[in-house]
Amino acid sequence: MDEPRGEDLLQITDRRTGRSYDIPVVEGAVRATDLRQLRLDDDDPGLLVYDPAFLNTGSCRSAITYIDGERGILRYRGYPIEELAEHASFLEVAYLLLRGDLPSPDALGNWTRRITQHTFIHENVKRFIDGFHYDAHPMGTLVSTVAALSTFYPQAHLLSDAGLRREQVLRLIAKMPTLAAFAYRHAMGLPYVYPDDDLSYTGNFLNMMWKATELRYQPDPTLERALDVLFILHADHEQNCSTHTMRTVGSSHADPYSAMAAAAAALSGPLHGGANEQVLRMLNTIGSVDHVPEHIRRVKAGEFRLMGFGHRIYRNFDPRAQLIKRVADDVLAVTGPSPLLDIALELERIALQDEYFIEHRLYPNVDFYSGIIYSAMGFPVAMFPVLFALGRTPGWLAQWEEGLLDPEQHITRPRQVYVGPAERHLPVPTS
Ligand code: CMC
Q1: Which of 8, 34, 272, 330 is catalytic?
Q2: Distance from the CA of 299 to the center of ligand 1, in angstroms?
Q3: 348 lines ligand 1 (CB under 6 A)
Q4: CA–centroid distance, residue 300 to ligand 1 (Å)
Q5: Which residues pair with residue 235 across a beta bridge?
Q6: 339 close to 280: Cβ distance less than 8 angstroms
Q7: Of 66, 150, 334, 363, which is most buried, counting CB atoms within 10 Å of its CB?
Q8: Which atom of ligand 1 is nearest to the CA of 310?
Q9: How far apart (Å, rounded) are the C-alpha atoms in residues 96 and 78?
Q10: 165 CB under 6 A from ligand 1?
């Protein structure tokens, strides 16, 4: 960081001791370690910042994704999400996130070719998948098989070798659709479909999901593009729970497969990437537009949350939700109308004018409409978090590598405020 100018100082007076301190403010932040100098005496380890759930703690400096939650802005490497969703492909966005700039046409061709070379998985991975129970949740299968990949690439732990790091990045981006589709086909009792490297990244994923007896699967171009856009919208979202997990596990210098398995596990929770699954279950439970007011009443009574609403960062709207609504129109024009969309629109309409939701600044988030699209495209709800993981893969990898290369980073190790018993002793034996 640059040296702070004189006016960029925070003056703190510690009224416990009467001492004053000048704490540098750089890039809108103070360093938590600078507060350690606020001590009562020589035995005091210094002032600790207590921040459960990291509501106001910057854990890294990052040049990847910019979010302004108040103004509903999301940019990858400076490019507005709206422009990327309109004009870029998912693989271009993956390149942008990982390399910092959009690829030239030649670089994109090379990148696509290299990813396409890695789409197959070792036949033994198929055998692990076979070992899962017939109704295994595909997210559990995905998490386990991503972790298992590390056993096939023992060089993956050689993190200081840039070439090897890039190799694992390509493998993970390339193999995620294959693992995701195989997890689905296993759960459905269907034979696995091998990658078709003549199709686009997303088209090949649809092929591995849906191919039946036809000689060659041809994806519907509207659905192929819609899914590509959904992947773009999910590709990164700065320091969310799963990305933080990716960086944290990466900070111990675990290999990227292990780190990404942990990130995917973090994503699977219903408050994170599992929310789109919960949205669809909720819409199905509501069942019809007439039942919406009763559902809202129960949410306000604190019985449960309105899934797909609310966000830690976005306080006025989630720009991804607005784009997704448009994608929903394109998809439903192909697949036919969805009664769930009517319920969702009514929920949104009522919630947005309700005092509770206005006061709590709750708006539809990315997950509110994505489930309707996935469902219309034929994905079962259990696949929704898997699709989220697929889209988030380049973001996780970009953040992982940025963390590894950041000289300021060390192994992640938060502190705690101890609130347990003071020192005590076992009773002395009497005999
Ligand atoms: N429905 C009803 N009330 C809510 C909701 C909701 N969806 N979200 C927050 N609230 C209320 C909450 O009850 C609390 O009220 P009070 O202050 O009166 O006790 C207040 O708003 C603040 O809640 P919080 O849990 O402290 O807020 P947070 O910023 O920690 O949580 C959230 C963010 C996304 C976890 C939360 O809004 C939520 O649970 N939403 C539903 C799940 C969901 O849609 N998650 C997907 C998030 S977007 C995709 C992703 O990034 O993973």
Answers
A1: 272
A2: 11
A3: no
A4: 12
A5: none
A6: no
A7: 363
A8: 37
A9: 10
A10: no
Mean pLDDT of the chain: 95
Ligand 1 lined by 309 (C-beta under 6 Å)? yes
Of 234, 236, 311, 318, catalytic: 311
- Cα of 155 vs its chain's centroid, Å: 26
Tell me, yes or no, whether 151 lies in a domain: yes
Per the structure, the count of domains in the chain is 3
State percent of the chain over pLDDT 70. 98
404 occurs within a structural domain:
no
Tell me, yes or no, if 311 is annotated catalytic.
yes
pLDDT of 2 over the 70 cut: no
Rounded to the nearest angstrom, the distance between the alpha carbon of 346 and the centre of ligand 1 is: 20
Using DSSP's 3-state secondary structure scheme, residue 38 falls into coil
d(CA 26, CA 139): 41
At residue 5, the pLDDT reads 57
Instruction: Looking at the structure, tell me whether residues 226 and 285 fall in a common domain.
Output: no
361 CA distance to ligand 1 centroid (A)? Answer: 10
Range of 101's domain? 89-266
Reported as a single tens digit per residue, the pLDDT across 286-344 is: 999 999 999 999 999 999 999 999 998 898 889 998 899 889 999 999 999 888 989 99
361-395: pLDDT as tens digits = 999 988 888 988 999 999 999 999 999 999 999 99
Assigned token pair, 246: 């990716």
- Domain presence at residue 414: no
| Nearest C-alpha neighbor of 97 from the set 274, 271, 231 | 231
Q: Is 272 a catalytic residue?
A: yes
